[in-house]
Prior knowledge:
It contains 14 helices and eight strands. The chain is of the alpha/beta class.
Amino acid sequence: xxxxxxxxxxxxxxxxxxxxxxxxxxxxxxxxxxxxxxxxxxxxxxxxxxxxxxxxxxxxxxxxxxxxxxxxxxxxxxxxxxxxxxxxxxxxxxxxxxxxxxxxxxxxxxxxxxxxxxxxxxxxxxxxxxxxxxxxxxxxxxxxxxxxxxxxxxxxxxxxxxxxxxxxxxxxxxxxxxxxxxxxxxxxxxxxxxxxxxxxxxxxxxxxxxxxxxxxxxxxxxxxxxxxxxxxxxxxxxxxxxxxxxxxxxxxxxxxxxxxxxxxxxxxxxxxxxxxxxxxxxxxxxxxxxxxxxxxxxxxxxxxxxxxxxxxxxxxxxxxxxxxxxxxxxxxxxxxxxxxxxxxxxxxxxxxxxxxxxx
Length: 359
């Protein structure tokens, strides 16, 4: 495949050395571009980093021999003492049990909506556990009060006091997690945080960091400390891990920027609509489609009698609706999704229709 002008620009930027940031829209040939960039580095030692094990495994079949493909967690796990990682298998302590062990009581706090908010001991314990989790995804060396999530309706001064009062418990729980003799179960975030605190040196001359928009403060801290060239690649409009502390690294990285805007998935009609949507989000770099790809925009109200090669759905209920409609029409249908989740959804709906509770 002949590289596009944008792909050539990315490869030249990587070949030139130094930190590079690549904004890659969906379907714009990101993986093939990174492969070409790795090939351009010749004998230099490369590392492709992904969040997902399946993505890293697939990438290993596409990248040249000079580039290893790993996940962040696999690097951290391999560098952590076994007496810590074995705690992944310990029984998880539920919040109500932690509350009992730490002596938490029921709290009643004033809110900005005029009605007091009552926090059960278990809810307080959950805040402490979430505080440790947020710390594990941050770049700070120790837990701080702002790591503790507090309901937004609680008055600011009360929220600040609550965080300060719970901070010793957060630090106590973190100490238990990192104590090999403690029976406390740990999450994967704990050993990743320990790895980050050890100031690791990644053995590579260049690092291709994929899905950078979903990076958290911890991973940015690790990569900024490396002597290797780092290439951050991501799409700021596909961020899905903000709920767990992802900070959209594409906004925080100061580096020469390249863009991959030519999508190979659709034609000009869809590209034009996508660009209009991006403009509403203050994005001025348009998406470009393939001239030879036929695509069209069609309103749902007039789409009842058409046949499609594929239908994208946001919800399980929509997937099942289109599946049933396709079967009813006599179409050959298939679903690419987590079948277990769909089956659980359908089973739950059936139980509700029978008047049963869904666990």
